[in-house]
């Protein structure tokens, strides 16, 4: 078990299986809000469902309209249960805020430390991310 310090952007707690990408996500062009998958074939998590899991990626890229894709994921019951970024951008922050998805970033650690994790828990109140498996 390993503990990392996190910063809560959208408050919450979560525990579960992760889906990890070392590349940014373009929500507007690269996510299918009907399926809850990354639709960009260049992504390491291409076509891998992330609904109900903790989605980890460095940051979002592309249009700020991507925030509405995050909201649509929530409305379609295809959203991740939480998101962790290296550095949170305004698109991810605003999308998670309107969708009610807990969002965290890692100000003191590198996101690659999570690349081999299987399950984590997040707690905004304690500012902790615990690698369970």
Fold and architecture overview:
This protein is α/β, with parallel strands linked by helices. It has one domain: Glucose Oxidase, domain 1. It is built from three helices and ten strands, in the order βββαβββαβαβββ. The protein has an eight-stranded mixed β-sheet with strand order 1-10-9-3-6-7-8-2, covered by helices on one side. β7 (82-85), α3 (90-99) and β8 (103-105) form a beta-alpha-beta unit. α2 (66-75) packs parallel to α3. The protein is globular and about 35 Å long. The termini are close together.
Summarize, please.
By secondary structure, this protein is α/β, with parallel strands linked by helices. It has helices at residues 27-30, 66-75, 90-99, and strands at residues 2-5, 7-10, 13-20, 31-32, 37-38, 54-56, 82-85, 103-105, 119-123, 128-131. An eight-stranded mixed sheet has the order 1-10-9-3-6-7-8-2, covered by helices on one side.
User: So, CATH architecture?
Assistant: 3-Layer(bba) Sandwich
| SS-based class | alpha/beta
- Read across the widest sheet, the strand sequence of neighbours is 1-10-9-3-6-7-8-2
> Quick check: average pLDDT?
96
